[in-house]
Amino acid sequence: MSMETALALVLLATGLLAACDSGTEERDAVASTRTVQRPYLPVPPGVVPRGTAAREAALAAPGPEVTPDLLARGEEQFRAFCTPCHGASGRGDGAIVSRGFPPPPSYHEERLLALAPEQIVQVITHGKGRMFPYADRVLPEDRWAIARYVKDLQARGAGAPPDRGTVRP
Ligand code: HEC
């Protein structure tokens, strides 16, 4: 082996090591960026993938048949996801509101009394104005259950007790 060849090999090896090192550093940097900085992406409003016929069908009116079980499920889900803002009676006086969150309109306002159940399903799915979508937390069938429960709440009037007595322990 000539002197030149040996030198070239040493340089080459050093170069490769350096390349490996910097490669490792870059990978680490990328990995740590992913771990630390990956943003939490809420499921976007168009959560129902186009072309997924089953999902779209699940959101299409008239939805599941209204039964006592569906209303009970709706009440349970409404309490879990909606009362913090809308209040148990739907008057827009939930606990979060008393802590400064902008109050939602009362469900007993004329405009909201006129909402069809499928419009409520849409609000749950896509959000509206300052209200976030709940598509990533509430299943389509449960959105219908909640919507039917909201209509039931409205039908009972602003002054009625929120409890239908249908939720089983
Ligand atoms: C974090 C608070 C919050 C939660 C939780 C919440 N909402 Fe709302 N909601 C709002 C606010 C604020 C508005 C008014 C939005 C606007 O017009 O900017 C609103 C508006 C609405 C409206 C009226 C939409 C319209 O046409 O004006 C409906 C219906 C509704 N929400 C249903 C629900 C249901 C059902 C749930 C539970 C799955 C729910 N919301 C959970 C805050 C909330």
Walk me through what this model shows.
It is built from 7 helices and no strands. It folds into 2 domains: 1-39; 53-156, Orthogonal Bundle (Cytochrome Bc1 Complex, Chain D, domain 2), CATH 1.10.760. The N and C termini lie far apart (86 Å). It has helices at residues 3-37, 53-59, 68-81, 83-86, 110-113, 117-126, 140-156. The model is unreliable at 14-38 (pLDDT under 50). It is mainly α and 169 residues long. Helix 3 packs across helix 7 and helix 6 crosses helix 7 (140-156). The longest helix has 35 residues, at 3-37. 54% of the residues lie in helices and 0% in strands.
Question: What are the main properties of this structure?
Answer:
extended, mainly alpha, 169 residues, binds heme C, 2 domains, 54% helix, Cytochrome Bc1 Complex, Chain D, domain 2
